[in-house]
């Protein structure tokens, strides 16, 4: 074999090895998610930690009741990744569309106990524990995976507005729900994504970004 042929063969062998090495070293942390809503001080300026990092909003503590009639607090999802959803069982078809999309999320992460779904009624005067149980059964909600919550109405409305930054949205004459948005919350209680729950493509993006978060946390161990 001539020296030129040997050189060409060596290059052909070496290039893929170098590409794989580059991806392994520099590509590991390529995908990251933004963190939403920096904390502001009284003057409206972004707050920073003593290390100079931006301090982000965290969903505040809450104390509600599950479809099983048991107390459910923010501590029950502390250390979990979860999707928050505000709805009513009496809501027109849009809430049903979103719940159907959340079935897809539940199925996609059935084997991931650290991924949860939290659906909170904004009409507790209608949505009793029994009503939530029936609604959960309709969509095949799995125990310890998908929670349906009720509680004191003003606390729920405040949580939606100030905890998840969701705008109120009128729905006909039978009441109201919140925007059609699904909110992705990380293990630290920070908001990492907002999605249109009626859009299959948006829910596909939600599923992808949950996987990005799972991958990120796995690399921290």
UniProtKB/TrEMBL annotation:
CDD domains according to UniProt: SCO
A Pfam family annotated for this UniProt entry: SCO1-SenC
Keywords of this entry: Copper
Matches recorded under Gene3D superfamilies: Glutaredoxin
Domain of life: Bacteria
Residue ranges constituting the Thioredoxin domain according to the UniProt record: 53-215
Protein's UniProt keywords contain Cell cycle: no
PROSITE patterns for the chain: THIOREDOXIN_2
Similarity remark: Belongs to the SCO1/2 family.
Protein's UniProt name: SCO family protein
């Amino acid at each position: 074999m001539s020296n030129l042929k040997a050189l060409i063969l060596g290059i052909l062998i070496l290039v893929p090895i170098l590409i794989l090495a580059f991806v392994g070293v520099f590509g590991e942390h390529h995908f990251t998610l933004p963190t939403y809503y920096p904390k502001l001080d009284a003057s409206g300026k972004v707050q920073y930690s003593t290390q100079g990092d931006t301090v982000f909003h965290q969903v505040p503590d809450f104390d509600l009741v599950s479809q099983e009639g048991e107390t459910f607090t923010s501590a029950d999802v502390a250390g979990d990744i979860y999707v928050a959803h505000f709805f009513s069982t009496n809501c027109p078809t849009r809430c049903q569309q979103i719940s159907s999309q959340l079935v897809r999320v539940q199925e996609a992460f059935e084997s991931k106990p650290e991924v949860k779904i939290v659906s909170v009624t904004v009409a507790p005067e209608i949505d009793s524990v029994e009503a939530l149980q029936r609604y959960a059964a309709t969509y095949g909600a799995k125990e310890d995976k998908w929670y349906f919550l009720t509680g004191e109405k003003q606390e729920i409305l405040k949580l939606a507005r100030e905890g998840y930054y969701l705008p109120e949205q009128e729905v006909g004459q039978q009441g109201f729900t919140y925007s059609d948005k699904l909110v992705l919350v990380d293990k630290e209680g920070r908001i990492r994504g907002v999605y249109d729950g009626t859009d299959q493509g948006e829910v596909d993006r939600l599923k992808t970004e949950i996987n990005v978060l799972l991958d990120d946390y796995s690399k921290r161990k």
